[in-house]
């Protein structure tokens, strides 16, 4: 049995302690079904021009139930609409299970997920939130995406400490799936803690990083 230990998240906790804003989303929706298309509209505020050219999706409790590969049935129409809006290499799944080489070294889970969704799954050495460079390397290897800056990428996921911290540290936009597939009482203790932490930090005046200017 492979233990799914996340060294990247453990190391990045020190950044989070010094700058709690790193885990905050730029926008939030209740479930995957509530995503606006195009995603630009989720982030437009105060006259800021946003041009999202590619999207990175988490899997578990985002568009699928944990330990499954199929798109959650109520989200299937939205998933297909998102694929149509961001076709081919402009949509990418980045999971800390499928495609994470420390957990899925032979890419078996990644292959199964790609077959089930029709979306490329990134094989990555470093787990979220530390794989920003690998994500940008993928988009740069596909110039047809038009991605020239992390600020043209939206990260969609259910976790503040991985997905939203990934967005902030790489200079992208983070869209938090706040409620997801799994009922609150069945979520992990970390997920339940994040449900309270996000609103608490915002109430204390913290704001997410400006995309394009990642914290280092």
TrEMBL record:
InterPro entries: HAD-like_sf (IPR036412), HAD_sf (IPR023214), PGP_Pase (IPR027706), PGPP1/Gep4 (IPR010021). Transmembrane segments: none annotated. SUPFAM superfamilies: HAD-like. One of its GO terms (biological process) is cardiolipin biosynthetic process. It comes from the Eukaryota. NCBIfam families: YqeG_hyp_ppase. This is Putative had superfamily phosphatase. It comes from Diaporthe ampelina.
């Amino acid at each position: 049995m492979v233990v799914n230990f996340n060294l990247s998240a453990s190391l990045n906790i020190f950044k989070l302690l010094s700058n709690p804003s790193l885990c905050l989303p730029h926008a939030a929706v209740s479930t995957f079904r509530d995503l606006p298309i195009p995603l630009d509209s989720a982030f437009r505020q105060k006259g800021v021009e946003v041009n999202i050219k590619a999207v990175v999706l988490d899997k578990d409790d985002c568009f699928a139930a944990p330990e499954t590969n199929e798109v959650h049935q109520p989200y299937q129409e939205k998933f297909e609409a998102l694929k149509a809006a961001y076709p081919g290499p402009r949509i990418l799944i980045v999971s800390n299970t499928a495609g994470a080489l420390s957990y899925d070294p032979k890419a078996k889970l990644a292959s199964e997920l790609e077959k089930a969704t029709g979306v490329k799954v990134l094989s990555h050495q470093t787990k979220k939130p530390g794989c920003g460079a690998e994500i940008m390397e993928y988009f740069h290897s596909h110039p047809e995406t038009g991605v020239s800056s992390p600020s043209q990428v939206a990260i969609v996921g259910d976790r503040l400490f991985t997905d939203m911290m990934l967005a902030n540290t790489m200079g992208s936009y983070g869209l938090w799936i706040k409620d997801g597939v799994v009922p609150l009482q069945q979520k992990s203790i970390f997920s339940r803690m994040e449900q309270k932490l996000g609103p608490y930090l915002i109430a204390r005046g913290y704001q997410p990083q400006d995309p394009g200017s990642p914290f280092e």
